[in-house]
Amino acid sequence: MQVDEKFLGLRGGEDGRFRFTVEDHLARLDGRLYGGTAIAVSVTAAERVSERSALWMTTQFVSTVGTGTEVTAHAEVLAPGRRTNQVRVTGTSPTGEVVFASLGATGHPRLDGLSGEFEQAPEVRPPDDAERWDSPFAAFRDLAPDMELPPVPPGTGFTGVIEMRKAEVIRHPDHGPGRVCIWVRRRDGGKITPAIAAYMADMVPMSVAHACGVLAGGTSLDNSIRIGTFVETDWILLDLRPHLAVGDYGHGAAHVWSRDGHLMATASQTASMMRFDPTDLPWTKKSET
Amino acid sequence: MQVDEKFLGLRGGEDGRFRFTVEDHLARLDGRLYGGTAIAVSVTAAERVSERSALWMTTQFVSTVGTGTEVTAHAEVLAPGRRTNQVRVTGTSPTGEVVFASLGATGHPRLDGLSGEFEQAPEVRPPDDAERWDSPFAAFRDLAPDMELPPVPPGTGFTGVIEMRKAEVIRHPDHGPGRVCIWVRRRDGGKITPAIAAYMADMVPMSVAHACGVLAGGTSLDNSIRIGTFVETDWILLDLRPHLAVGDYGHGAAHVWSRDGHLMATASQTASMMRFDPTDLPWTKKSET
User: Fold this and answer.
1) Which bin fits B178, alpha (ψ -120 to 50), beta or left (φ > 0)?
2) Quick check: helix, strand or coil at residue A154?
3) In this predicted structure, which of A163-167, B95-99, B130-134 has the lowest mean pLDDT?
4) pLDDT band of B279, cuts 50, 70, 90
5) In whole angstroms, what is the distance from residue A216 CA to residue A218 CA?
6) Which of B8, B108, B238, B247 could bond to A110 as cystine, CB 3.0-4.6 Å?
């Protein structure tokens, strides 16, 4: 079984119809389907149905389902070019309701084609020197060191399979509020593919809240990723760059760097932001429905 | 008639079905539908059908049509939230073929909600001091000053309605290859709305080619935009930031600044890149089919 199928528990694929069950590690801290899961499933299904590498994927969140639900992801090639395929992936619940809708492209990169990396990596301290985080919300401890932020119980949602450490920034190439850098790896030491990087990159809303200086979470309206060359790397550096917020909506990007500084992908998101009451956090009211 | 409908020649809208004809100013330099037109139509149709402001839009290019073709854009609200709507827009040709597929969101920004701008604007000389460009390909004159690059005939495609000037960069906040800044305005002096900014921002592939140091064009696989607060501005500064290229595919972003330095939107694109033969350029082989 291939890496992505195993990580996501993705089954089937006949006629482009894949299935997965929302296990704990595919859920958010409140037990609902994690956005990173939906884009990772879309990337994998698009690659399999088109027999090409994913170049770009955008996943729109239409409704939500809870832990234990089986979701069907239907991948269709809309424009079957010789080199490039335009693909659509639609995720539906057992009752046929659309859960997520994705658009993307897959292709065959040319070995001698135009290639390059045009962004600078932040200079950060290595993961061994980095503070361990129980969730992305640990970022808020910087904003309010005295705040009582209840820890996330070990194994909750996506935090059960990925380890996060706060990367201390020595020099940032693109200054601004809310720049947060996080070392992320798989707890099982497994490979980080484009689909799994897309899963890991779903943390932009936290950086928007950090830029605004408030304790807030975001409901992602979409997750998008643009994919370059992936190299073997144990950790990725997630380099969050919030762009702007307007009236409780936030936008931003996440550059995905290999440990040795290759820009492997750039992700972006729009989210509906909501201030949290520190006494009523998502992981203290986990729902199972 | 509203600004966007007039600019795009957008008609109808009953049952969410809008129509427009690919006029010269809605075409690329080779006479085919311009990608910026498709995302601008998607933004406008999504706003009208949901009666909300566009927050984010991604448009995937599935097939192409030539000047004179009537395209139908069908806008549907997939998830009608109280505050936020998730929307889909599908563009089809007269024979029912899908031309473009868009996903996006619209919403009601909260007046007292989280707001802010977290990116730095490049410091550039004003438009009055800037070199006039006949098309985005004028950027390549920097790469090969001695190259004979045939001028684009006045009024070709989108260059008929937008004026471009090369903004001389004094200080760039995010150094890297291919950073190109362009002042863009409407030739008729009309208002720049989010839809029209999306139309103008379709120039990322040129900056990817510039970063690679070659004369090349890109066929956009998608155009995406994330929208903030728009202010009155005669010119926008299009701040192109190519991210990476792999095997003739390129990715990058465009920040959209008002003349006085407000970050109004961030756009991004993936494109399939193709080196140009300088003796056989798109505007010397315009097709009308």
Assistant:
1) left
2) coil
3) B130-134
4) confident
5) 7
6) B247
Does the distance separating the beta carbons of A214 and B118 come in below 8 Å? Answer: no
Provide the chain A residues 45-104 that lie in CB contact (below 8 A) with chain B: 55-56, 58, 60-63, 78-79, 83-84, 86, 88, 98, 101, 103-104
CB contact under 8 A, B61 and A86: yes
Distance CA A97, CA A90 (A): 10
Most distant pair of Cα atoms in chain A: their distance: 58
Q: What is the pLDDT of residue B138?
A: 86
Q: Which two tokens stand for residue A199?
A: 């899963």
Compute the distance between CA of residue A258 and CA of residue A197 in angstroms, rounded to an integer. Answer: 10
- The CA-atom distances, in angstroms, between A18 and each of A8, A12, A66 are 11, 5, 18
Tokens at B86, concatenated: 């998730």
Determine the number of helices (DSSP H) and then strands (DSSP E) in chain B. Answer: 5, 16
The Cα–Cα gap between B197 and B191 comes to 10
Please tell me which of the candidates B60, B84, B273 has its beta carbon nearest to residue A114: B273
Q: In this structure, which amino acid lies at residue B282? A: P
pLDDT-derived band of residue A45, with 50, 70 and 90 as boundaries?
very high
Asked whether the predicted pLDDT for residue B53 surpasses 90, the reply is yes
Q: Are B7 and B58 in contact (CB under 8 A)?
A: no
Residue A285 has a pLDDT of 66
For chain B, give the mean pLDDT: 94
User: In the predicted model, is pLDDT for residue B179 greater than 80?
Assistant: yes
User: What are the sequence ranges of the domains in chain B?
Assistant: 3-107, 123-284
Q: How far apart are CA A129 and CA A131, in angstroms?
A: 7
Binned at pLDDT 50, 70 and 90, residue B289 comes out as: very low
CATH class for the region spanning A3-107? alpha beta
Residue in B109, B119, B252 closest to A176 by CB: B119
**Cα-Cα-Cα-Cα dihedral sign, residues A207, A211, A216, A218:** negative
From residue B74, give the alpha-carbon distance in Å to each of B38, B48, B67, B100, B186: 12, 11, 20, 11, 27
Cβ within 8 Å of residue B268, ≥6 positions away: A224, A226, A266, A268, B204, B224, B225, B251, B252, B253, B254
Answer CATH for A123-284 from 1.10.10.10, 3.40.50.1010, 3.20.110.10, 3.10.129.10: 3.10.129.10
With cut-offs at 50, 70 and 90, classify the pLDDT of residue A62. Answer: very high
- Determine which of B65, B180, B243, B266 to mutate to test the interface with A (most A C-beta atoms within 10 Å): B243
> What average pLDDT does this structure show over A15-23?
97
Please state, in angstroms and rounded to a whole number, the distance separating the CA atoms of residues A99 and A262. 34
User: What are the residues facing A61 on neighbouring strands?
Assistant: A100
- Tracing tokens 């144990």 back to the chain, one arrives at A234
pLDDT category at B96 given cuts 50, 70, 90 is very high
A129 touches chain B (CB under 8 A): no
DSSP character string of B267-286: EEEEEEEEEPPTTS-GGGS-
Cα–Cα distance, B165 to B142 (Å, whole number):
14
- CA Rg, chain B, in Å? 18
The pLDDT value recorded for residue A287 is 47
